[in-house]
Design brief:
Layout lengths: L2 H41 L11 E2 L5 E2 L11 H7 L4 H9 L12 H8 L7 H7 L3 E3 L6 H10 L4 H7 L5 E3 L12 H14 L2 H17 L5
């Protein structure tokens, strides 16, 4: 995609779509937000929103991503610091920062993650300008560091991916999600950066509801 047109699309048309789209969707999903929030409090102890570290956004800027809590409280730190979970953490890193059977996930969390309901609060991030409706995945800082060590050939791709805002949904999210390893996932994200356009985003948006309903590749 032409660099000038890509920047023009990101700064103007795409941002306008993000603002109006996220606002409208927040209004539509407001009743669902309330139901999910109450269900989380009834299902397990802990906050409604996930207490996870910041994510890496455009140009490496860190930001707080809003997600409904689908795991036990303080799950992110427990995995990295609890000696009892050391082998699980090694498996987590080996599997491109995904666990097929994660014991930290709550009963309700399994359902939410399967259908991406835990991702809905990211509409707030889109409205605030940290994210876009469509874009690459928002990675953890340590995930990027460790995965680039494992896949050194992905370093240039990572730079390209971080040149734009991450998205709630995107090319890799509708093409296998967690079944895709980091090297292939970052390549798909970089491909999106090169090819992004209004029509490309529309095609991804059309595929997103089925990806959520089917839960294909979700963990």
């Amino acid at each position: 995609m032409n660099i000038f047109f890509g920047n023009y699309y990101d700064l103007l048309l795409k941002r306008i779509i993000d603002i109006f789209g996220s606002f409208i969707l927040l209004m539509i999903f407001c009743p669902i937000f309330i139901v999910i929030a109450v269900s989380i409090k009834l299902d397990s102890a802990g906050p409604v929103f996930a207490d996870t570290p910041e994510r890496v956004g455009k140009k490496g800027k860190l930001f707080k991503m809003y997600k409904f809590r689908s795991m036990v409280e303080n799950a992110h730190t427990l995995l990295r610091k609890d000696p009892k979970l050391k082998s699980l953490y090694e498996q987590y890193k080996k599997n491109s920062y995904k666990l097929i059977d994660d014991p930290r996930v709550t009963v309700l969390g399994k359902f939410m993650r399967k259908h991406s309901l835990d991702e809905l609060p990211q509409l707030i991030n889109v409205l605030f300008g940290d994210m876009s409706l469509i874009g690459p995945r928002a990675y953890y800082p340590d995930e990027l560091v460790n995965q680039q060590r494992k896949y050194p050939n992905t370093r240039n791709l990572v730079k390209k991916v971080l040149s734009i805002k991450p998205g709630i949904t995107g090319y890799w999210q509708v093409s296998g999600r967690s079944e895709v390893n980091f090297d292939k996932r970052i390549a798909m994200d970089a491909q999106y950066v090169n090819s992004r356009s209004l029509w490309y985003d529309i095609k991804i948006l059309i595929k997103t509801p089925w990806a959520m309903i089917s839960g294909k590749g979700a963990v």
